[in-house]
Design a protein that fits this description.
SH3 type barrels, 27 helices, about 65% helix, three-stranded antiparallel β-sheet
């Protein structure tokens, strides 16, 4: 409704400006104005023009055409040498300054004569039937379009009502809903325009100037309504309805009304200028009106910029806290003000200098600069909505492709939007970027600028894709736990990532040098010679790298596994291209080059058998031992803390060997190779010892048996006394022998 009302008001204003101020006849000053020939002159239009001109106007028009056909009088140039050469540049500046002063005088006179010019144009438009007939013709055309549009909306009222009362829950659903509403509105506007054109052709006024007025009014109405539809699509006018751009109600309303008003001013101004030129008004009058419309548009733009500076600054910052982004967010209204003021001053200067003006370039650049962030934001929000919907699903996996590659897709969107925006802006302003680069960087670099940019962009994107794919796979492998050995992929992928990075950087550097015209064949040959020299001079290094590659291909060890290499052992903490780092369980770290590994023992792969040994007396019942071990095995298997890591239960192997003090009984079990296996081993030892003690079984101990003279075994206490007495007698005998010797 706002767009239709605004369009109707400006249409009426456009017609009202062109109507005469009074019903009186033409003013006496009409003969002072030289009539303007139409751009396309035919016999019919020439006769029609002469029928509306007086004798004085025909004479003025003839004199103007004769003056243009006359040869220009050549002016004597400055004399060669002396002051003529010194004053060359000053003369050029003075000549241009003089022409600008003359142009300013002409425009000022046109400003003073503007009311008369508008009144004369209105008289030409309304003659001979008057202005009421023209207003009625415009009203009939607009009414015909409005009636057909109302019928269209009435026929689709049910679909529109259901669409408005079914808001989408996600961003994609809301965007689709608003797109359908925009499609309905565009259809209504198209029906309005077609019906109005049909009514125009049905009535078809006989005067060409009136047809031009009616068509311009119709175009202004359609243009303003189209702008209102787009503004409503991006910035919904209803507070309860979701809008695509994340703005509050107040700034959204200001932006929406300002955009509609700016386009209404521009459309009204262009239509009025076109009508005045068609009515024979001088170019100076059109230039004066153009400057006036520029000033009005500038005031509206600057008011809008400073009214919404804070919400736009918040959008620019987003969730980023960088210093550069902060400066841009704080200074964007100042930069926008300087840009628009510069555009206005440049347009005025071009008018004064008589330079042809490329119409719409400045406004198109502004619209492009505004549209690019909107497009970028829309794509990024759609991507974020897709990611959130994936995460909300019940079968969501952290390795989902869209979720994992979201940062890459976001960077691709930013890069594509920026590149396309720069190319479009350069195209609007007729800037040759390659010629500009050639002036500053040199011909060869400028000629290769595109290929170098493509190589850099392709290298960056390839590395981001590979890095994200590897990181995604590492995430799918699960978090790295110190107690659990890593998988083979988690061990190999970091090395593969580093290798790919070096390879991509080298290839990109070679491609850039080739793009610059550098012959890279000698570089490749030199690199090969250097590689051969390094291979001969550092054979141990080559042996370490090659051996490490084969160790990794054979899957000999992984991160987190406990391995033994000679007298060095420990958990694999780090792997690089040349060596492996082993962290001993007491803390020291061993660094082993791959080439020095002759034999490797991995104690963390698949399973491990643990053997428990007990020394028992000869009189111990092995059947009782087996029953006790079976009871302990059942207890461990029933314990949920240990059952999952026991692959084969604890069982008695039986007597393995005999010696002087008893027999060696062995118990074993098979467990998974993790830290829990040592806990199971300790618990099994503790339970078996306690069970033996409770059953009255004792362990064999080393002891001394003394056999008496009668062949009987002497008790341990008596044996000790006997041994002590023998030792005392020996000491006494030794002491007496020493005294006799003296």
């Amino acid at each position: 409704m706002i767009g239709r009302a605004t369009a109707l008001l400006f249409a009426l204003a456009c017609v009202a400006v062109t109507l005469p101020a009074s019903a009186a006849g033409p003013s006496a000053t009409t003969t002072a104005n030289v009539p303007r020939l139409p751009d396309t002159l035919t016999r019919e239009s020439a006769r029609d023009l002469l029928s509306h001109l007086s004798d004085a106007e025909v004479r003025a028009l003839l004199l103007e055409q004769l003056d243009r056909a006359a040869a220009p009088v050549s002016k004597p140039g400055p004399s060669k040498g002396g002051m003529g050469e010194m004053a060359g540049m000053a003369g050029v500046v003075d000549q241009h300054a003089g022409s600008m002063r003359d142009r300013y005088t002409t425009l000022f006179d046109a400003l003073l004569a503007l009311p008369t010019t508008l009144r004369d144009a209105a008289i030409r438009i309304t003659q001979p039937s008057g202005g009421l007939l023209l207003l009625g013709f415009i009203a009939v055309v607009l009414a015909a379009g409005a009636i057909v549009e109302l019928l269209y909306r009435y026929a689709l009222r049910g679909y529109r009502t259901r669409l408005e009362h079914a808001p989408g829950a996600t961003f994609s659903a809301r965007a689709f809903q608003l797109s359908l509403e925009l499609l309905f509105d565009v259809g209504a506007l198209a029906v309005f325009g077609i019906a109005a054109i049909v009514a125009f052709f049905a009535l078809w006024p006989g005067d060409e100037l009136r047809r031009i007025v009616v068509l311009n009014v119709l175009f202004v109405v359609v243009g303003v309504r189209t702008t209102a539809l787009l503004a409503r699509f991006l910035l919904s006018s209803t507070p309860a309805r979701p809008r695509l751009l994340p703005l509050a109600d107040a700034p959204a309303r200001i932006l929406r009304r300002s955009v509609i008003g700016l386009f209404a001013i521009s459309g009204f101004g262009l239509a009025l200028l076109f009508i005045l030129r068609a009515a024979g008004a001088p170019d100076e009058a059109s230039d004066v009106l153009g400057i006036a419309f520029w000033f009005v548009g500038l005031v509206l733009i600057l008011w809008t910029v400073w009214s919404v500076r804070k919400p736009i600054a918040d959008l620019i910052r987003g969730d980023r806290r960088g210093a550069v982004v902060g400066w841009i967010a704080d200074l964007w209204p100042v930069a926008a003000t300087a840009y628009f003021v510069t555009l206005l001053l440049g347009g005025v200067f071009n008018l004064l200098a008589g330079t042809p003006i490329t119409s719409g370039v400045g406004l198109a650049s502004v619209l492009l600069v505004i549209a690019l962030p909107v497009v970028d934001m829309a794509f990024c929000r759609a991507l974020a909505a897709g990611v959130e919907s994936r995460r909300a699903r019940a079968d969501f996996s952290p390795g989902d492709a869209l979720v994992a590659f979201e940062p890459i897709f976001r960077r691709v969107i930013h890069i594509v939007v920026v590149v396309v925006g720069l190319l479009l802006i350069a195209r609007l302003w007729d800037l040759d970027l390659f010629a500009f680069a050639q002036l500053s960087l040199g011909g060869r670099i400028a000629g290769s600028l595109v290929s170098i940019s493509i190589v850099v962009l392709a290298t960056y994107m390839l590395w981001e894709i590979l890095r994200t794919a590897i990181d995604r796979r590492l995430v799918a492998e699960g978090p790295q736990n110190d107690d659990v050995p890593a998988t083979r992929l988690r061990t190999v992928l970091p090395i593969l990532r580093a290798t790919m990075f070096v390879t991509i950087v080298v290839m990109a550097a070679m491609s850039i040098l080739a793009g610059l015209g550098v012959n890279i064949v000698p570089l490749i040959a030199g690199a090969g010679v250097v590689g051969v020299a390094i291979g001969f001079g550092s054979q141990s290094l080559v042996r370490d790298i090659v051996s490490g590659a084969f160790f990794l291909m054979d899957d000999a060890f992984r991160l987190g596994e406990y391995i033994e290499v000679g007298d060095a052992k420990g958990r694999v903490e780090k792997i690089n291209l040349r060596s492996v780092f082993l962290r001993h369980h007491r803390g020291p770290i061993n660094i082993l080059p791959y080439g020095e590994i002759k034999r490797l023992r991995n104690t963390s792969r698949d399973w491990q058998v643990h053997v428990l040994e007990f020394r028992m007396p000869y009189e111990t019942s092995m059947l009782q031992v087996k029953k006790i071990v079976k009871q302990v095995s059942d207890e461990l298997s029933a314990d949920e803390d240990y059952a999952s890591d026991i692959l084969q239960p604890v069982k008695s192997v039986g007597v393995m060997s005999m010696n002087d003090d008893g027999v060696l009984v062995r118990v074993k079990f098979t467990a998974r190779p993790n830290n829990n296996q040592w806990v199971i081993r300790r618990v099994a030892y503790d339970k078996i010892i306690r069970a033996f003690r409770n059953a009255g079984l004792r362990f064999a101990t080393r002891q001394v048996a003394v056999i008496g003279p009668d062949g009987q075994t002497v008790a341990s206490g008596a044996a000790a006394l006997a041994i002590e007495s023998i030792a005392n007698a020996a000491r006494k005998k030794g002491a007496s022998g020493a005294g006799a010797g003296e």
